[in-house]
UniProtKB/TrEMBL annotation:
Keywords: 2Fe-2S, Iron, Iron-sulfur, Lipid degradation, Lipid metabolism, Metal-binding, Oxidoreductase, Steroid metabolism. Its cofactor is Fe cation. It comes from Streptomyces amakusaensis. It comes from the Bacteria. Pfam families: KshA_C, Rieske. This is Rieske-type oxygenase. Homotrimer. The two-component system 3-ketosteroid-9-alpha-monooxygenase is composed of an oxygenase component KshA and a reductase component KshB. Residues 26-127 form the Rieske domain.
Amino acid sequence: MRIRRTRDQVRPRSDSDPVLPYPNGWFCVGTAAEWRPKTVLTKPFMGQEIVVYRTERGTLRAVRPHCPHLGAHLGFGGTVDGELLVCPFHRFAFGPDGACARTPYGLPPRAGLQLVPVTQAAGLVWAWHSHDGTPPSWQLPEKLTRLSTRHIHIRSLEVDGHSLDVAENAIDFRHFPHVHRIDAEALSEPKEDGPFYHMDIRLRRPMPPFGTIVQDFSVSLIGVAGPFVEIDLPLAHARVTGCVFSTPIAPRRNRIHFVSAATFTRPGRPSRGVSRIAAGVLESAVSRVLGRYHYRDAAHDFPIWSHREFLPHPRINGADSPIGPFRIWARQFYPSVGEDREAK
């Protein structure tokens, strides 16, 4: 797995936009490689913080940051002892279920940590957010959880913008020619599938000196965290995958994770005449190249996201991208107006 750090693209702001509350769903909080056994890290998440740790046996857990005993922050000096998370203040220890399991003096109080649902997929760690504290109502799709991370390439940075920008950007193919210099057309009408949204798009990308490359691909939105894009290359017996996952961490500020991977798809073995080692080297190289193109395309959107105003009722026309249907579908991830606003 290759992980690349990138300079954050954040514009200082003195104002905040109260229109969009933090969305519900699964969102990335970091790369799985950050959490080796017994690692404890604090991550910004939906305007607050969560503490994510991995036990000695490898169990991944996330909790709200403060100890219920006397309020110490578990992410600053907290440690893992076997399967227990230990507070740095009085060494009260908490089990994977959140309950206080041990103290250095007296009996453990009837107190527990507030757990945050967490899982791992595609080389990333995902945390669940719900404005009213309800448990996960859906799970990450199987194609994401089964994505091989052996030669995956991940790049992350912070970007100013609204929580909906990345997801909406993926299906707004009308901006591709003007911002990315890529011709685009829709091959299918968007399809809703509960918390997932699908659409097929064709791109015509100029790639001198090779001419124009035609790419047909399927976009699948995983909630409003962002798109999962798959492109099949039948002649090469390969499939390339590109994802842009966005996590709101503060008002109008998001942590973006770019994920790219290439995999040979010939059943049971890599392409004919190519050894497994050579196939792995090729997959890794293609993943890196795909990651560069992926990031370069998205970087053209950063200034627009940073200065964009969210319009609840955009004046779209009949030939526009499916912004209207997308916005209606996306309402399921947001609380009612006035609840849990980003500007809180």
